[in-house]
Amino acid sequence: MSRQLVCDFCNRPTTHDHGERTHKSDPFSITIIANGAIVPIDFTEDWLACEYCHQLITAGDKDTLLKRSLECMPSDPESVILIQGLFWKGKRK
After folding, report:
1. Taking a C-beta distance cutoff of 8 angstroms, is the pair 33, 18 a contact?
2. What 3-state DSSP class applies to 29?
3. Which tens digits make up the pLDDT trace of 75-85?
4. What is the rounded distance in angstroms from the CA atom of residue 5 to the CA atom of residue 7?
5. Does residue 17 contact residue 52 with C-beta atoms inside 8 Å?
C-alpha cells in the first residue's frame, strides 16, 4: 500500500511531483512541545509543495503561504511561523 503524500506547507494531500514541486532549503532541527511531550523534529533539504503552495513559493509570496499554512494547521501557530521562517532563511534557488 502506498503512502499518501502531503504538502509540507499546507498538509493537504498531493501527488508525487517527480522533483517538479520540490523546493530545497538548508536542513534544520527544532524541538517543540506537543500535547505535553517534547518532540524533536528534523527537517531535510527537500520540501514537497502542492501546486498552489508551489506557485506561492515560486512567486516569493511568504505572507500568503504562511496564511494558507496557518489556516490548514491552526493548532500550533508559533511552530508554523518558526518552521516557515527557517525554510525561507535557508531556501536555495
Report:
1. no
2. strand
3. 889 989 999 99
4. 7
5. no
Give SS3 for 74: coil
pTM of this structure? 0.85
Between the alpha carbon of residue 79 and those of residues 5, 20, 31, 32, 33, the distances in Å are 21, 27, 9, 7, 9
Cell 493548532 locates to: 75
Side-chain-side CA neighbours of 63 within 13 Å: the count stands at 0
Selection from 86, 87, 14 nearest residue 47 by Cα: 87
Q: What is the pLDDT of residues 4-63, one digit of tens each?
A: 889 999 999 988 777 788 999 999 999 988 788 898 999 999 999 999 999 999 999 999
Measured from the Cβ of residue 23, the count of other Cβ atoms closer than 10 Å reads 20
Residue 68: name the closest of 7, 26, 16, 27 by CA: 7
Give the whole-angstrom CA distance, residue 21 versus residue 55. Answer: 9
